[in-house]
Every structure is written in structure tokens, then in C-alpha cells.
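Progress narrative, Year 2. Work on Porin from Hafnia psychrotolerans advanced from sequence curation to structure prediction during this period.
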Amino acid sequence: MKIFFLTFAAPTIKSLGNHGFFETRHVLTRATLALCFACSVSSPVLAENDWNGTVLGFEAPGDGMLGDMLGIRPILDDHGFHYQLGYLSESAYNAGGGYNHDKKLAYIDQFSLTFTQDLEMYTGIPDAAIEGNIVNRNHNDNLTSERTQDPRVGFNDIAQESWGGQSITRLGWLTFGRSFDDRKLHWRIGMMNKNQDFDQIIPCDFQLLSQCGGKSANSMTWYNWNKHYWGTTFQYKVTLELTLKTGIMEQNPDASDRKYAWSGSLKGARGILLPMEAELKTKVNGLPGIYNFGLLYTNSKQQDLSEGKSQSVGATDPEGYRTHSDTWFMYTGFNQQVTTRGEDSNRGMSVSYSLGLGDQRSNYIHYTQAASMRYRGLFDARPDDWLGFGVTYIKMSDHYRKNQENLNDYYQVDDYGNPLYTPLAGHSVNADLYYQIKVRSWLILQPDLQYWHRPGGVSETQDAWVTGLKAIVTF
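Result:
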């Protein structure tokens, strides 16, 4: 068994105030770049097709339940149409503690179709393709808001990561893309989603939302998976290992509304999003790893969570809360394989870390840190099963907390049990343990156990235990 130890020293992040981002950004930038440089110099140059991300969680889907669909799928493949049709369900049960102790089993599910139509075979344009995604979600049943945490504060985590707030069918994306410069530059344009290009170094396998993928969605200015917005993006391969990414997208808070599920309208857009990301796909001690550092800027107006336009207290300001002309978000992380199981490169352990840091003047989640471990093929009799464990620390915005204090002062209440009282949100720690069973190539069952310390960041809320079950079917 090959093994090495990776140490990552995350900087201590204190309350930043209005200008603290610049100091913290410089510290985190130096730490991330130093980490990436260390990975580069300690590993051989990555060769084409020499990087295997299976143990990192990027496992190719198995044969679908419907096989070749009576010969239909091979015909479609021959004509350049490739698709994945899947089903996902997530159940969560409040086994103990939380805000509401009444027992409840919450259930959601979704169907998703992701497809690519290859145009290169017809046009000769390098990597020319149309890409699309359609998601149907059902059962708007969220255990977090209904049982786990105090409904008087905004939730900072979700026990069922695929809960999306509505039972609805949406267009996730529909884009055209192609490559230039000997396939070093890839361009994409259309109604898109950030998941096509950005912050994709950590898979979404945990059922706890804070352990699902990276942290860039915590920016609250762009959206995950099944919501689309107009834009164009560019990826440039500087080397075989290093890719630089950027783009320009609309910032549209109305994208979540039901009326925009299939709309191509720009109505409601407040400004533009400018993402920038560096992604390093490399090897350390011969084992694959992937690292990133990203910044997201938007020029759309943002409302301050605490301060008023004419006075320091926005809650009682007759002119309302002050606004800011722009905002930012920073994210970074890594996902590194650290062991192999014998000579099988598809079995072993990986570790990951992700951080999202927001402008606490307008983002009620100041920062989130998540660390996790995954092991593929722990048991010889079950080489395709997974074991995963992750812990998340979430710090709420000081501006958000100050506004809660101001509201309590205004209503002259200090009793947590008073309906007029606004709970004070601080930090929370959540953990998730799962075992993923590959029953068939097309069927996965994944029971999990979640622990919530200070749900929603509220110290008065009892710690909670949540049990869950995720089922995945590939057609």
C-alpha cells in the first residue's frame, strides 16, 4: 500500500469588517499558490490520459438499467448524441434533538437528463458540441426548515442536498461550445450554469449540502445545477496540469423563480458576474490530485444586512438599509488521493478540503470550511463501495448577527421563547458519515448519519441527529 501525508494549514479567519477581505485574500492567495507550487515541483509532469480521478470521486457511470435500449442508444451514439438519464431520491429523518422534536421523515426525488450532441463529426470544428441539462424535482419536503433548525433564521446547511425549494421541471443549461488553438482554448456560450466550468474539484456524494462539492454556491449570486443564466466562458490550458478559467454571466436573482424555469429572458438581471479560477490537475507522489482557487465579482447592488442609509441601524432607518455597488466571493480547495489498495489504482483513500469566504456586509454566511475523507473499495468483497466522512464549520456574518440584535432591541425582547425574538446566529459544526453500496452497476443505495451542532448557528437549538438514505438509479 502506497501512502503519504498531506498537511494543509488553513489561516485563522477573524471578523473582517468592510475592508478585511483584501488582507485575508492575500493570505489565502499566498497559501493556495504555495500549495499548488509544492504539488507541481513534487510530481512528474502530467502526461495525456495519465490522470485517474476514480478514487477522488470522479467515477464513470456504470451500465444503465435499460442497457442499450433495444439498440437505440448505440444508434444515438453513432450520430454523436450522448446522454445520461438518472433518478435520485433523498430521505431524512430527525432521529434526535433539533428545534422541533416531532418525528418526521422528509422525502424528495428528482429525474435528470444531461446530454451532449457532438457537432465536430459533422462540421470538423474542434470539440464543437451542444450541451443540455433538464431536471425534474418533486416533493418540496425539507427536514432542515421543518424540524432541524429554528425557522426564524436562514438555514446555512441542508440535510437533503438536492432539495431545491420547488416541485418543478427546469432547464439547467443549453449551450454551444468549441475549441481553438490546438484545443488549448475552450469557449462556451448560451444559457449556462456554473457547474459546467467552475468549482468542480470535489464531487457531490454526501447528502449534507455543506459537504456536497465546492463552496462557490455560497456566494448567493450564482446558482447550482438546475438553474440557468446567460453567459459565455473560456477555459485555457496553460499546461497539461494548469487550466485558467473566466467568463461573463448575467447576475439575475429572479433565476430561481418558477417563471424562469424555461425562460431565455434577461428581465430581472441586476448586473454581471465575473468569475476567475485557476485549476491544477496534477500528481503528488504518483497519486492524482486536483486543486483550485477562484474569485467571483459582481457589480449588482447588494443590500447591507445591518447598516442603514442615514444611520448605523438599518432596522429602524426610515430610509431603509444601505446598499453596496458590488460584492465579491472567494473559494478554494483541494481533492487528493493519499493511498492505494494494493496494486489497484481504483481503490484507496482521498482527502479533500474546501473554503468559501463571502462579503459579510451582504452575505449572511461569512465563511464555510469543509474537510472530508473518502475510501473506495475498503473491503475486498465490495471493491466498488464507498465510505465517506466529512466535517463542516460554518461562520455566520457579523452584520447579520448585528441586525438580529438590533431587531430584538427594537421589539424590546430578550427571551428566546418569545415569538418576536430573533435568534442570534453565530457558528455551527455539522458532520456526515455515509456508506455507499453499489447494488448493481445501475443502482446505488447510500445510508448516512448526520450530526448538527448548533443548527443554523443558534446556540439555543439542541444538537440534532439526522439519519438519511440516498438512492441513485442510472437508466
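The CA atoms of residues 227 and 256 lie 7 Å apart. The first strand starts at residue 81 and ends at 98.
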